[in-house]
Structures are given as structure tokens and as C-alpha cells.
Amino acid sequence: xxxxxERVWNEVLAVNVTSIFLFAKHLVPLMRTAGGGSxxxxxxxxxxxxxxxxxxxxxxxxxxxxxxRAIAVDHAHEQIRCNAVCPGSVDTPMLxxxxxxxxxxxxxADLLGDWGRAHPLGRMAGPGEVAEACAFLAGxxxxxxxxxxxxxxxxxxxxxxxxLPTDERN
Length: 170
What we know:
5 helices
């Protein structure tokens, strides 16, 4: 936190939170006129658990989840739903750039493999898998879902960081 430049803090919050606020602010009146609708915000597992040295990013993702709940509660009576999708590691150009940045002397592909294996399913998500969750929340099959945070994380936030040795009695 101490090394996060205030300009970086402001930029991350503007891109990740203020943009969602402004989008919803201008979309809700149109949805109201249309008789309702669904907003799906993209957050992250970083809203629940965090890595080191990502204070602005983690704070912004937590804010997205809080904003999602506020929009959902404020507009449910107008049949306007709002939910958040919270992915774990997703194989995207942004994640690959992060691997390049943090790989040091390692092959970035090895680092990406490690990140994938950190998920109980043993891999990263594909962008299409996250898109499917977004499509579900945007569509009619989720008509009774609002204010929720759908984790699309391969079990990452469900797993404890400490594993116990195998006990033959279990």
C-alpha cells in the first residue's frame, strides 16, 4: 500500500469502478423505460482474497461488488437486476502480460502453468467460460438472481491454502 502511487490508485478506481458507476447511471433510465433488464459487472476473486502488491486492484474489485449490491437493491422494484461475475485466473492477453512481467528468469508459460495449477480444477479459465456465466446472469434463466457475486474461479476461493497430509483412516 505504501508504494502505490496516488495516480495509479486513482486510475485503477476510475477504470474499474467509476466506469461501471457511470455506465449504470446512464443505462438505468433506459432500462426503466424498457420495463427492466440486467446489468452484469465483471469483478474478480480479488474482491474476496488478494495477492500482495495489488492494493488498488483488490480495493476496486471489492468496490465493484458493493456497487453491484447497491444497484441491485436500489432498482429491484423496477425489475432491473444487477450481478457480478468474479473470475479467477483467465487466459487473457492481460494475464499473459502479467506473466511476462513477473516471470523473471523463468519461462512465462511455466508461471502461467503454476497459476493454473493453483486452482483446484488445475487450470485457468478460458474467456468463453466467463462469458457463459455473464450470459446466464444477463438472460431470462436468472430472472430471480440479483445482487449476487458468481465466482467463476475453478474452486480457487473454496480451497484452503494449507493441505493436510493424507490419512489412511479417511
